[in-house]
Every structure is written in structure tokens, then in C-alpha cells.
Design brief:
This protein has 487 residues and is an all-alpha fold. It is built from 19 helices and 2 strands. Helix 3 packs antiparallel against helix 4, helix 4 crosses helix 7 and helix 8 crosses helix 9. The protein starts with 9 loop residues before the first helix and ends with a helix.
Length: 487
């Protein structure tokens, strides 16, 4: 802390006052000339200088921006997330420059970890499938986004988040802006009487729709428990604040009216004990057998045709209790529209079973493979929403090898993570591994009937949790000493 006893050195003071004067000048000129972009020029200048001096503050800034970023559509139909995507691209570029200079210093136990290799194989297949894509430019954009997600949300955290102390900093960076989004959403939603029909209006501009919002909140729940433990274990009197935050958080999840969030959190609660008792391998085996049994049931003798909806009665529900009732009666429009797209996906697979239609290409090709019996009032899909099942999307766009590699990647990460949890002796690192595993399982469950892996709200968190899993699995007490030395 700077005080009168510990002032800035004279050269630093000159830089500080010079920068402040420049910022005020740019702001004044911008307001007078209505060239408002000038007000942001000093900030951009700071970002550029900071990037080359020490890019770690920009990484923490990226994490802060995840909950409050906004999606915009650019000319040409491409969407981007501001400011997270430009930051992720810039940080990935800086990481490449840093690696080119310091590669011998990168720790093989982290960057060459078996979990890391599973992720590399998954992204490698995406790049390979892009070469055979039906829509090369769409797939290229998808693949590039995957690369800067890999750089910013996995490789960079491996370099920076090496200790439980840094994991806690990561938690704080995401917690407080996400709590702000939840609180403002609850307040705005209360003005509508927590109406199910109006809830989508209350999260703009931070979230595009309720699934991303609920997924972002639900994925972070295990970290609230970790933070509570961390504060209590260090005798911090502020730990009780988590007792206030948690019910607010769960209320925000409830009023998102997202069925997948409720199921995913319930599964995470069960998974805590499954991991504790080393039952994860048989549990995942049962899940795979169950999934295959469901697929065979619907595919055999075209049984799926018996579940075609009634076009006239399958409508949008205005109340959440009606939605739950309509779901099991197969009269909920969102559920049946999923069936409409899943059936189309099933018909697409045989035409390109090995390399798929290309990453990101489902939307441009599925309508030629739909079955009219499953058509609903929203099947025109003016909002261009996706397939609503990441596993099925992977199969369609990357073929059977792509789905196999993806399943090996996510299940392998969980099984290796369970083993690291039981081997780690440091309590903080051990609890961080558990929180990361549960957060990843929540995303895995979400992806059964949603496709959130490519969003900065959920997909970024998944990769961050994967990096924490690797980092805390490799953690030793000497890492804390070197972390303090680096500052």
C-alpha cells in the first residue's frame, strides 16, 4: 500500500500523473467533439502496455468479465462476446510469445499431463474434421475459437493458477460479478412477480437466455462451498457471508426456471459421495449403458415415431408448473422442438459418419433431414438456436471418432481427477479438486439436453475447472513458496 511513508518513486509519480492527465484530456476532448472512443483510448493504451509488462492482471480481468460479458452479432452473421473474446484472443497471442521465449521453463507435469493430452486430442480432431467440413469457413471460425479458448482458459491458467491461494483468487474474480448479475436479475424479475413468461427479460445484457444464466450459476455452486471451507480453515470471520450468498444463489437458480440446472445440481450432490467412495468408474459405466439402452429403444423399429407431438397442443407454457406437467405429457414446445432436431441429427449421421458435417455446421444443414411429424410452432428457428445436446452435436459435426474422443476426454478427466483427489494430501488442493470435479460434472449433465460448451459463460468455466484439476493434482507445498516469491 502506498502511504506518505511509502510514496511512489519520482519517475513512477511522473508516469502516474502523466497518464492521469492524458486520460482526463482524452475524456474532455471526446465529450466536446462527440468522438467518444477517445475516452477509451487511455484504457486501451494501458492494456497494451500491461500486456507486455505482465499479462497476469489481464488474465484476472478476463475472469472478472466472464459473468458480465455480452454477446453481439457482427456484420456477416458472426457473433462475438465482448469483452471476453478479444481478451481471450489477445491473451492467447501473448501466451504464444511467452512460450516461444520461456518454453524450457514450462512444467511438463502440467502441460504434458494426461488430462491435458486428452484435451489436445479432442481439439486435434476438431481441426482434422474442419478440413472435411461441408462449410469450411464456419468450421474454421469454430476451430479458431476453440484454440483461443484452449489458450486463455486452460493453458494460461496452468501457467498462473498453481496454488490453492491462486484458485481462491480465481473464485473471487468470478463470484462477485456473477453475484451482481444474479442480484440485478432477481430484483428485475421481482418487478414482474417472478413470472415464468417474463424471466428472459431480466438478465439482459449479461446473458442471452435463461439456460446460459442457469448453467453459469449452477456450475459455480461447488466453488461457494470451497470458498466457505477456505475462509473457515484460515479463521476468517467473513466465512459466514457465504451462508448469505448461498441461498441467494440457489434462489437465482430456481427462478431461472431451468430444469437441467435442478437435475445437474442434484447429480452433483450425489457425485460428491460417489467420488468420496471411489464409485465414479461404475457410475459412469452405468450412465453409458443407460444412454445406449435409451438410444436403442428409440431407434429400434423406428419407435421414436410413436412420440411425435400434437402440433396443436404442443405450445409455449406461460407458467413453470404447467411446463413441468407439459414435459412429461410431451406437450412442452421446448422439449418437443429438441426431439425435432435430434431426429434430424439422427438422419444426418449416416451420410457423414467418420468426419461429420464439420464443426458448427449442424444449423446450416439439418432442415433437409427433419421429420414433419415432430414439427412445432418454433421449428422455423429464427433465432438460430442449436441442437440442444452437445453429445449429439459432436456426433453429427465430428463423426463417430469425434464423439468417441470427446467421451474419452471428459470421462478420462473425471476418472483421473478422482484418483488425484484421493492421492492429494494437501487439504486445500484436495478440496479444490473436488469442487472442480463437481463443477465439470454439472456441465457434463447440462450438455445432455443443451449445448453450452462453446459459450464463455459455461464453456470457459469448464476449461478453468479442468486447469484447476490438473494444477491442484500436481500441487506440492513447495509450489506455495515459489508462488509467494513470484508475487
Amino acid at each position: 500500500m502506498l502511504t506518505s511513508k511509502n510514496p511512489l518513486p519520482a519517475p513512477a509519480r511522473k508516469v502516474y500523473y502523466g497518464y492521469a492527465a492524458l486520460a482526463l484530456l482524452c475524456m474532455g476532448v471526446g465529450m466536446v467533439s462527440e468522438a467518444y472512443w477517445l475516452a477509451g483510448a487511455p484504457v486501451l493504451g494501458w492494456v497494451v502496455v500491461q500486456a507486455f509488462l505482465d499479462f497476469r492482471p489481464l488474465f484476472w480481468l478476463l475472469l472478472v468479465m466472464i459473468p458480465i460479458s455480452t454477446n453481439i452479432i457482427l456484420p456477416g452473421g458472426f457473433g462475438t462476446d465482448l469483452p471476453t473474446e478479444p481478451l481471450a484472443i489477445g491473451l492467447t497471442g501473448l501466451l504464444i510469445l511467452h512460450a516461444a521465449r520461456h518454453w524450457p521453463e514450462y512444467e511438463k507435469k502440467r502441460f504434458g499431463h494426461p488430462i491435458a493430452w486428452l484435451l489436445y486430442a479432442h481439439i486435434g480432431w476438431i481441426l482434422f474434421a474442419t478440413l472435411y467440413s461441408e462449410g469450411f469457413l464456419v468450421s474454421l471460425k469454430f476451430s479458431l475459437a476453440k484454440l483461443w479458448y484452449l489458450g486463455a482458459y486452460f493453458l494460461l491458467p496452468l501457467l498462473i493458477i498453481k496454488t490453492p491461494r491462486k484458485v481462491t483468487l480465481m473464485v473471487h474474480c468470478i463470484l462477485w460479478p456473477l453475484l451482481f448479475v444474479a442480484l440485478q436479475t432477481l430484483v428485475r424479475h421481482a418487478a414482474y412477480g417472478f413470472s415464468f413468461a417474463m424471466q428472459h427479460k431480466t438478465m439482459f445484457p449479461f446473458m442471452n437466455e435463461h439456460v446460459s444464466y442457469a448453467g453459469c450459476l449452477a456450475t459455480f455452486v461447488p466453488w461457494l462451498f470451497f470458498l466457505s471451507w477456505w475462509l473457515r480453515s484460515r479463521g476468517k470471520s467473513t466465512w459466514w457471508l457465504t451462508l448469505i450468498v448461498l441461498p441467494i444463489w440457489l434462489a437465482a437458480v430456481y427462478f431461472s426456471y431451468t430444469r437441467a440446472a435442478f437435475v445437474a445440481l442434484a447429480l452433483a450432490g450425489a457425485a460428491f459421495y460417489i467420488i468420496k467412495w471411489r464409485w465414479l468408474k461404475p457410475a459412469l459405466g452405468l450412465a453409458i449403458v443407460g444412454a445406449l439402452a435409451v438410444v436403442l429403444f428409440f431407434v429400434r423399429d423406428n419407435k421414436y415415431l410413436d412420440y411425435a407431438p400434437d402440433f396443436e397442443t404442443t405450445i409455449t407454457q406461460e407458467r413453470f408448473d404447467n411446463l413441468i406437467t407439459a414435459t412429461y405429457k410431451l406437450e412442452d414446445i421446448s422439449t418437443m422442438e429438441r426431439f425435432y432436431r435430434w431426429v434430424a441429427a439422427g438422419h444426418m449421421v449416416p451420410y457423414r459418419p467418420w468426419t461429420g458435417w464439420g464443426p458448427g455446421n449442424f444449423l446450416d444443414h439439418y432442415k433437409g433431414y427433419t421429420v414433419n411429424a415432430f414439427r412445432t410452432y418454433v421449428s422455423d428457428n429464427e433465432g438460430r438456436s442449436g441442437i440442444h445436446s452437445y453429445y449429439l452435436m459432436t456426433l453429427v459435426e465430428q463423426g463417430f471418432p469425434g464423439l468417441f474422443i470427446f467421451l474419452v476426454y471428459i470421462f478420462g478427466a473425471l476418472l483421473i481427477g478422482e484418483r488425484m483427489y484421493h492421492r492429494q494430501t494437501d487439504p486445500a488442493a484436495r478440496n479444490a479438486i473436488m469442487a472442480a470435479l463437481l463443477a465439470m460434472l454439472i456441465v457434463d449433465a447440462f450438455n445432455i439436453i443443451n449445448d453450452q460448451m462453446e459459450t464463455d459463460k459455461v464453456g470457459a468455466q469448464y476449461l478453468l475447472n479442468l486447469a484447476v484439476l490438473v494444477g491442484m493434482g500436481c500441487f506440492t507445498p513447495k509450489d506455495s513458496v515459489s508462488d509467494r516469491e513470484l508475487g
